[in-house]
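Honest question from a wet-lab person: if I give you the sequences of every part of a complex, can you actually get the arrangement of the whole thing, not just the pieces? Trying it with mine:
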Amino acid sequence: MAGGKISLYDVEQFIREAGAEKVTEDAVRNLEQELEKLAQTIADNAVKYANHAGRKKLIRKEDIVLAKPIMQGKKI
Amino acid sequence: MAGGKISLYDVEQFIREAGAEKVTEDAVRNLEQELEKLAQTIADNAVKYANHAGRKKLIRKEDIVLAKPIMQGKKI
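Yes, you can. This is the full assembly:
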């Protein structure tokens, strides 16, 4: 699955708004890749949940909700 | 933290490329919110890891890597 593409500009804004003044390009690309990986995983799973519910090609919010992984984050 | 904004168009492409022909708007918004939540969490944590490493305002890739949550996903 090729997947979509999230704009590097958009990704960089998250880091700047968190308080960074300078951000290396590979930092931005690393975050972009993480977001795209999550987006593709959720999208792929959501299509399977829709199929399971008898919808072949229509994706609804509840498919996205079911498709999200559990995250063990910590807000440091 | 207001956070950035990921384009709804970009988010919808991930779902379409996973095989969807139709996607409801609230499905796209729900996935967008999930991606933004992850982006903000990683960005906020990355700034703290940078500070911990003695860098006040420069964010590097290794800060992003440390800041990622563990995901318990399943590829269904």
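Two things worth pointing out. The helical segments of chain A are 8-17, 25-52, 61-67. Residues 25-52 of chain A form the longest helix (28 residues).
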